[in-house]
Amino acid sequence: MSRADEFERQGYLVLPGFASEAACDALKARAEALVAAFQPETVSIFTTHEQTRTSDAYFLSSGDKVHFFFEENAFKPDGTLRQGKALSINKIGHALHDLDPLFRQFSRAPGMAALATELGLKQPLLLQSMYIFKQPHIGGEVNSHQDSTFLYTEPLTCLGFWFALEDATVENGCLWALPGGHKQGLRKRFVRAPGGGTAFQVLDPTPMPEEGFVPLEVKKGTLVMLHGQLPHKSGANTSPKSRHAYSVHCIDATATYPRDNWLQRAPDMPAQGF
């Protein structure tokens, strides 16, 4: 069975050794340096209405920038960090692939463009990137979701590249995927609300499946390809080991990208190809 056939059958593809250990280590070191240089203007728990709006603005303006997001459990009740900043960041997003030279080079590594084409994209554009730390003990659970919910196009074209920069296990919060679940249709969209902030727009009220997920325990350097409609999730990291990962999401330039999608880029910084 070809890789394209396997991807179409199960909605994901596991490719061990796609990235070298040296490349993974270089990304980890660069991400840690970015966090070390990051000086947050406000370190607090976002609970009040005003703070939520500030958080929304920071999040909503991150589509063409490099922004830093804390773990939900990183803070004490008084708003101070439970542990050092380097162990408190949830992720960096969402334009590392364009704005940081090392991440830009990695995101356009040989073979990625050909793989995107092989899996169905006619004119792939790199739209979003995230460095995900999955911190020891506090790395939060990510509920079951479909990437096309957040990166919606007409027709649906979202394709995810997920790189394990460290070994991913059940204990430290590996991915879980629902084989064949991408054939069940898209449930909802995440959009910019008319009055500000964001909202989910229901497309299909059918509940997301809860059974049938399989763990994707993979070694460092593995690339997992994810269909935009595939339900997937990850557990909390209850272990003393981190689970660093880097993901890039592509869409097809031939598709329509709606203006009410949450992620928008400035006109002078459009999504680029490989």
Oligomer: single chain
Enumerate the spans where pLDDT stays under 50 for 5 or more consecutive residues. Answer: 42-49
| Chain-averaged pLDDT | 92
Shape: globular
Number of discrete helical segments: 7
Give the fraction of residues assigned to helices.
10-25%
- Number of β-strand runs: 13
Name of the CATH first level:
Mainly Beta
* Structural class designation: alpha+beta
The CATH superfamily appears as q2cbj1_9rhob like domain
What name does CATH use for the topology?
Jelly Rolls
Radius of gyration over alpha carbons?
18 Å
Could you give the order of the helices and strands?
HEHHEEHHHEEHEEEEEEEE
- CATH architecture assignment: Sandwich
Largest sheet: 7 strands, antiparallel
Head-to-tail CA distance between termini: 27 Å
- The count of domains is 1
How are the strands of the largest sheet arranged? Answer: 1-11-6-13-4-3-2
Into which percentage range does the β-strand content fall?
A: 15-25%
GO molecular function, one term: 2-oxoglutarate-dependent dioxygenase activity
Keywords: Dioxygenase, Iron, Metal-binding, Oxidoreductase
InterPro entries: Phytyl_CoA_dOase-like (IPR008775)
Protein name: Phytanoyl-CoA dioxygenase domain containing 1
Please describe what this structure looks like:
Keywords: Dioxygenase, Iron, Metal-binding, Oxidoreductase. InterPro entries: Phytyl_CoA_dOase-like (IPR008775). This protein has 274 residues and is of the alpha+beta class. It has helices at residues 3-10, 21-37, 49-60, 96-99, 101-107, 112-118, 147-150, and strands at 12-15, 66-70, 89-94, 124-132, 142-145, 159-164, 175-177, 188-192, 198-202, 214-216, 223-227, 232-234, 245-252. The protein has a single domain, classed as q2cbj1_9rhob like domain (Jelly Rolls, Sandwich). It contains seven helices and 13 strands. Strand 8 and strand 9 (198-202) form a beta hairpin. It is globular and about 45 Å long. The two termini are 27 Å apart. Residues 42-49 have low confidence and may be disordered.
